Amino acid sequence: MTTKKTFYTELSYVFGILILALGTAFMERANFGVSMVVAPAYILHLKISQYLPFFSFGMAEYCLQAVLLVLIGIVLRKFRITFLFSFVTAVFYGFVLDGMMALIGLLPMTTLLGRILFYIVGLLACSLGVALLFHTYIAPEAYELFVKEFSGKYNKNIHKVKTVYDCCSCLTAVVLSFIFFGFLHFEGVKLGTIFCALVNGSVIGQFSKSLEKFFVFKDGLKLRGYFESEG
Questions:
Q1: Is position 32 within any domain?
Q2: Which residues have a Cβ under 8 Å from the Cβ of 127 and sit 6 or more positions away?
Q3: How far apart are the first and last CA of the chain?
Q4: By the 8 A CB rule, do 146 and 72 touch?
Q5: pTM of the predicted structure, to 2 decimals
Q6: Phi and psi at residue 230, to the nearest 5°
Q7: 4 domain-assigned
Q8: Which end of the chain offers a freer environment for a tag, N or C, measured as fewer CB atoms within 10 Å?
């Protein structure tokens, strides 16, 4: 019997953010449509940056997530200190995302095969990143936080809730694309986005099972109480 190795939840958080940002950058570069989770923020970035060039994808991410955190508090009718930590995560992710976008933008990619490869790598990386974030007590982004809070409150399978949330996010992005760019010009939401919305929850589930097969997730620091306090 293979002995499971220890994977600290704090490292799960850091690697989750880095890998998720890297995957998002790969998908954006492939131009088949970004992940449905970040598609609304990406569309806002494309529209607002036409008037404010400094408004980056990363900035759009944490601005939109701030609004989502307020909505989470309203829907769940409670406030937790985790919500504030989640915003800190959103800002951290936003800066990392902008860095990854600049880095991946330097890679040559001119063929259809290259675009497909970038898309596949991006999809898998995003799924792995989310799976890692589901294994840490440190507040994840607002997207993952909503899924965790909702599935916990109503005792629903987290990966099924994730799939439903992804589809709703995809629909929101489609509506925003229509509003900002018209019915004949899709931005951000393409066939790759639709495909990702359908399979992302299942792929995340498979990554989670694989991680739990080889690793035991344990806290390296005594900070869990700060993130789980009701506030």
A1: yes
A2: 23, 200, 203, 204, 207
A3: 43
A4: yes
A5: 0.85
A6: -70, -35
A7: no
A8: N
DSSP code, position 111: S
Count the domains in the chain.
1
* Helix, strand or coil, per DSSP, at residue 110: coil
Write out the residue range of the structural domain in which residue 74 sits: 12-210
Give the residue among 134, 140, 130 at the shortest CA–CA distance from 227: 140
Calculate ∠ Cα 44-46-52, nearest 5°. 90
Measured CA to CA, the distance from residue 114 to residue 214 in angstroms comes to 32
Q: Report yes or no on 219 lying in a domain.
A: no
Residue 208 Cα to chain centre, angstroms: 15
Do 76 and 153 touch, CB atoms closer than 8 A?
yes
Does residue 124 lie within any of the structural domains? yes
pLDDT digits (tens, 9 = 90+) for 147-202: 877 787 778 887 788 778 878 888 888 888 888 887 767 777 788 888 887 888 88
The bridge status of strand 5-8 relative to strand 215-218 is: parallel
Question: In degrees to the nearest 10, what's the CA dihedral of 14, 145, 131, 196?
Answer: -120
